[in-house]
Structure formats: C-alpha cells, structure tokens
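User: Show me a protein chain along with its predicted structure.
Assistant: Here is one chain, sequence first, then structure tokens.
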Amino acid sequence: MKIFFNWCDNFHDNSEWSNDEEIFSLCIIQREGSFATARVSIKAKKLEHKFARIGIKKNGQIKTIFRGKLISFPMSCEDSIMTIEILSEPNDYQTQLQNFSQKNREQYEAKNPEIIFDDLFFSEKDNPTIFLEGSSKIFYWNMATGKLSLSDINHGEKTFEISKQDILKNSTQIKLAREPYGKIQLNLSASWIQKVYGYVNLMPMIAQRFCLNRLNSFTNLAPCFRNSSQNGYSLIFNDVKTINPNGGGILNRFPETSNPIKIKNNHGEKFAKFRRFYFDGKFVLSWEYHQKRTENVCVSICDKNYSRCKDISIKLGAIQLSKNYPRWYAFTNYLCADRVIHDGWIYECNIPHDSNENFDESKWRKIQKIPDALKDDQLSSFFATDRGKSAIRYALRKMAALINFSRRYVTINFTLDANKFSDISVNDAIKISDLYSHPITAKVIQTKLILNEKNRLLNISVGYSPDNISDIFKLVKNYDFEINPDEDRIEISDIVKNISIENDPESQENLLTSQTFSSESAAVNFLKKHPTKIHVDLHPISQKREIVRTINLKNLEI
C-alpha cells in the first residue's frame, strides 16, 4: 500500500497524482454526521496551499480516500517534521445543504411516504441535516468526494464479513450504552392568528322585542337602522321597508290603526285614528378581528420492554395561510372571472351577481382544492387539516427514529489490518460473530485509519441492537388517528349585549289616548316628539381572547 499526498488549488482539484510530500504518519477519522479530519506529519516547510488530497495505490490504481482544506498551522514540529490537520469540509457545503432541503421539500410536496424533512420543524437559519432524525437515515459527508450522503441507522450500503482471525488480538472492546427508550412522549404545538369574521342579520332579534314579534310603530323606523358602525362592527346591508302583515291571511291579526284619539276644538269634539306601520327587511352587520390560537397534540410511543422515558416538546414554525385569493363575502357584487376562496376550494365566478347570505355554488365554477395549507384564514383547527395530520405523522417518525437509534446500544471497537480493509467507511456494515458464535450485522459508526512506518491499522467502532427490531416506521405509517375540527361558532349572544326599544308602539298609543289634542296636527307633532327608537348594544370586539386547545391521541404501542 503506497500513500500519495498532493497539494491542490481547490477542494475538488483532480489533477494528476504526484509525490508532493513524504508522509511520515497519517491518521484519518470519520464519524457519522461529521466532517472527517486527517492529521498528517510531513517535512517542515512553508505552506503555500490551502487544499490537499490523499490517495492509496492498490492493484496499480490510485484511489482518493480523502480531500479537504487546511485548518491549522503545524500542530507540532520535531526534527524538521510538522503535523498539520485537514478538514474534509467542501466549500459548497451550504449549497449542498440547501439543495438537500429543496429536494426533501419536493418529496414532501409529492407526498413521498419516505419524507425525511419538513420545513415546519425548522427555521431557515437551522442546519437541515439535524432533522434527519425524522427517518431511518443518518447523514455523513463523503471524505473522498465531499458530497452529502445518507446512510441507514442499522444497515450499510456494503457489508464486509469479518472473521475472528481478521481482528487484531486483544483489540476488541464491547460497551453498553444507556437502556433503549421505552416511552417517548411528545407535545407538538402550533400557533397561528385566526381571522374571525362574519355577519349577522339583527332584524329577527330586534323584531322579538316588539309585540307580536313584528317591527311596528306609529312613526317611521327607517332612521333607526342608519348606524354605520360601532365597537368594530360595520353596516354592510340595510333594506328596511314597510309591509302589510295581514296580506297573506283572511283575518287581520295585526291592528292597522291606533285606538281612537280625542280631538276637541272650537268646532266640537271628534275622534281620530293613527296608522300603525309595520316593517321588515334586513339589517346586516359584519365584524372582523384577529385572535391567537394555539393547538397542542400529545401522543406517546411505548415499548413495554424498557422503562427509560423521554419527553419531547416541538413548536412548529409559522403556519402560512392561503392568501393567493380573497375569501368569499356575502352581500358583495361579483363579476365573471372573479376568484375567491370558500370552504377550502378556489372558485371562479361564471355568472355576475350580488351575493346573498349563503354561498350559491350554481354561480361559481370549482377550480381546485387548496393543497397543503390552511383552508382559509378563518380556520379554528390546524391539526384537523391534511397539513396538520402530516405534521403529526412526521413528528411520530422523529420519535420512531429516536427509539430506533437508541436501540443500537451495543458498541464494539476493534482493530483490523488496513491493507485488507481500508475501504470500510461509515456508510457500511460488517458481519461478525458474537461471543456465542452467533452471526450479527452491525453498522459502522466511526473509522480511524492509522498509517505510519510501523503500522497499517483501521480502528472501527460499530453499533447494533441485540434485540429483534420491529418495523417502527411501518407502525407509525399505519397508526390510525382522527382529529375533529374545533367547533368555535360565534353565537348571537356573543355579539349582542342588549336590545331595548324606546317609545314602543304600545307606549305611543297610551300617550296619545290619555290626552286631548286641539287638532290632528297637534297630535302628529306630539307623536314626532316621542318617536320609536331602537337601541342595540354590542359586545366590543376587543374583548376576544386567546384560545388554547389540547388534543390527546391514543398511545402507539410497539
């Protein structure tokens, strides 16, 4: 085995091999999830390059085993020999991370069941690779190419068979890590600003304050419905008109005039009657306010074979609302080609119209369902949506991966002949026999290649689970749960504090009949001074509060 060391102009320099430096010793260490490092001893000299690569010649071929950039000045210098350290961190590692994130976003958008990344679980400032615990994969940086690669927790791309004769005598060490997790309890929370809006026709409620549940008066009630706004409410529709309540029946159930009113003047005494007016129509107020909502999901994965527990709290990132199109409004003029969001769908107007209280689907054409987003900004439950359920399943995968990783609690360290096994990396597995000659397959956790004048050694750390590992990810995939939307309806009592009537028609009539007037015009003027007035007192919107909801799902038993 011959070692080659070349200084390079950049990280990915693949120029012809030459013996730039004489190597006195070499130690390359690689761990799962980390950049590999190489510690090299060469002749002391002034360093003019920042990059280097290392190769091994086998069977007439030179194979690159490491490339990286210089990260330290000589660490030691003895007898004209200096030791330097090189890190296999590529210059484009940030770009690779971004590409990795984008690729997994695309997997998520394609609803790939093997999704290992969800942007709700991290911010743009975070390193996305730390969230690979959401799958059965772990990441590592290939020290020969500088590429970000993925490897299985318990199995490798290649499996090397190691016999007892291959392991250097007295080099084997077995360590037990902490007991695997028997229960992982999750608290997953999401917060967003709910836009609460709506409208109410107050006319029926006002009518209930009148005798016979009919708006009526001896004076005009139309001016009572001209208030445009109060306490954050706005008048969006006003259509008050006089009606004949007796027009639909044989009998006159509703009095049409007042009782006789006495008129006494120089010409004598007489009685007059005043017309009683009846009203109907719509008096519609709208309201809108912003309300913070927080939703918590609590769920556990349990394995009764172990007692070790772990609590995880995850707060999701910003919940994005659908804002591409406006929501549908009642009492609004719509033209052809207008697009709106209603009940989780995008609609396009195909018949111009003024909308009523209820959405008329016959005047609209369905375009598409809103994918992977809150259906509208009025949503009262995030985890009841498809997007929310997907977030729960991803969180369950993170929990399953943590349990799966903790089960690899047996670590074996041993030393091999590097001339024979220098190709083993952290992407591989080995097959060996345990103390009872039972074959086991273990995943490589760390490699340490030591090359000097005396030794050609490869120290290896592997981890495995002595237990039979159930397919936790399959259990998570098949975990059945259902979340009902949070019913948070605005009742009329939440809006109207009180409705009072001043000078109702019965009071007006009592005032008129209890007096004697000099003329009908005097009676009319007296009535004008005592008109019927309607007072509507509404709850101010500013009193709305934050709403917190907790959802407890059944435990997932392994």
